[in-house]
Structure formats: C-alpha cells, structure tokens
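Quarterly update from the structural biology core.
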Amino acid sequence: MLFWIVAAVLTLCACLAVLLPAMRVRGRAVADADHDLEVYQDQLGELERDAARGVIDAVEAEQARAEIGRRIIKLAAERKQDGSAGSGRLGRIVATIAVLAVPVASWGIYAAIGSPNLPAQPLQARLEKNPADSSMQELVARAEGHLAANPEDGRGWEVLAPIYFRMGRYNDAVVAYRNAMRLQGVTAAREIGLGEAIAANAGGMITTEAQAAFERALEIEPDNAKARFLLATGFAQEGRTKEAEGMLRTMLDGLAADSPWRGAVGQALAQLGVEADPARPGPSADDMEAAALMSDNDRAQMIENMVAGLDQRLRDNPQDAEGWRRLVQSYVVLGRMEDAGDALKRGVEALGDEGEAAGDLVAFAAERGVVLEGQVEQ
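Predicted structure, tokenized:
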C-alpha cells in the first residue's frame, strides 16, 4: 500500500508541475495588460493637466490624446483576442485532460496486463528461503552475505571460488582462491584453481603468474596431470614448442592406460605438429572418447592456445620450415582447411617460392589435402 501512496503523490506532483506553469502564463499576461491600461490612463490624466496649465498648446494636446487612444484601443483588441473567457477555459480543460490522461491510461494498462497483486519479494526474504528452491544467483548472494559477516571462513571461500569460475566471474574467483589458501592452507587443487582463474581472467592466456601457480602445484604433487597439461599449454603459447612437447611426452609415459588424459595429450601433441613415438603407448579410439570427460572449455582452450602460440611464433620467426609443417598439420587436424591453406601460403612466401624448403612444405601440405590457391590437387 505504501508503494501506491508514494506513486500517487509523485504522479500528482508531476501533473501539477506541468499544469501550474501554463496557468501562470495566462495570469501573468492578464496582469501585464491591466498594468498597461493603468499607465495609459495616467498619461491621459497628465496630458489634461498640462493642457489646463498651458504647458502644451491645443493642437499638440489633441495629437497626444489621439495617440494614447489608439494604444488603448489596440490593447483592448488584444485582450479580447487572447483573453476571452471561453477560449481560456477551454484551453485549460484540454491541457488538464491531456496531462491527466497519461497516468490514468498507464495505471489502467498495468491493472489489465500487469501483476499488481504479486506479493513483494524482498532480497532478504529470498535469501532465507529453502536453498533447494533458490536460484544460483540467490545462493551466491547468500554465500557472499555470509562471507561479508564472516570473512575468515576459509571453507566458504573454497566453496565459492569454483562457482565464481563457472559463472565467468574470474577476478572474484582469483580473490576467493587466494583467501581459501590463506585461511585453509596451500594444496595442489587450490593452486591449480587459482592458475586457471588467473588465465581465464587474462582471456585464456597462461600468464607468468598462472604458470607459477601450476609450478607450485607440481611441487606439491609432482604427478598431477592437470598441472602438467596446463603448464605445457603455457609453454606452447609462448612458442616454447620443444619444452611443451617434452613435458607432454613425459606426461604421456607416466599416465595409466585407462587415463582420460591420454587422449588429450595425444591431441595436444598433434596440435604441435608432432606425432607420438610409435614405440610408446599412443591414444586409442577409447582414449579419445575418454578425453571427452575433460571440460569442453579446457580442451578447446588448450588446442586453440597451442595453435595460436605456434602461429604467432612463426610470424616472429618465419624461417622455421619445421614450424610451418607443424602449423599446417595442426589446422588440418582441427578441420580448419582455410587456415591451413593460409598457413601454407605464408610459409611458402617466408621460405622463398623457389627454395627447396618451400617445395618440401608444398609437398607435405599436398599429402594432407592442402594446396596453394590456383594449384590443382593431385
């Protein structure tokens, strides 16, 4: 009820703010006309006194009377045209109806299609309802309220950190992971979560700070597959292909035969443009299917970052013939044939159209179905 009272008062004030100035304009015009008439009447009286004293002669007095008379007649005509009672009253009625029609129509439409009887839902009441009936945003708001009152609750920060990450609130996830480690202690899982949040906040780039988090995780758990994988991704982004390849191969050797990471590592090596050693256990069809257990975002980010890192390194160092073959191979594996063709074209231009290295690159690409523009595939 209080809301409707306030709304009605505000609506009334808005209407008066429009109507009162319009009425004042008319009142001011009438007052100005009355003042002018009094001035002319005073002038006539002064003229008659001057004529009686002989200050002005009869001809000048007559001319002055005629001029003042014309002004009085003109003023009377203007008042009759602009200030007639009928037109003034009609104008005020039209203006009042027009102004009041807006809120009346708005209230009527809302009453017909709105929800005026919907009960209020204050934030505190929503936060206090059964968690099973709450949305994710309400649950997060509840947790944030709890942590605002209990900032030393390390368990609360640890629970909230991955939720922030899934919601895309990466900076908040970084803060939450740091608080969790400050209050709960450092673990490999928390360091990995922190590194992922830092990388996501940087647009998917494994920054120096994120790499440091993964390295600390490996110091705690040297065999942690996720930390090794993400650290290798960072090396690939920097163009440190050999280091990334070495870390991935070492990781592959230490993985169990049924590990879902085997398929992911095999894909990562393919994106680097190299093949796993045939003597070593490579990823099978089952391994590739098991790799689907990884987060789609993690896998896609890893692949795209590795290829982007290799592409950027070749732009900076275009004389690397082996690098161009790896880049073409990576785009073919991804199914990005147009990008593979573009990489082939750039590689040939960088290595020299007539050179042996360029010819080897063209032959390598042709075996994978990639040809230069204007070249007919054999």
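DSSP finds 17 helices and no strands in the chain.
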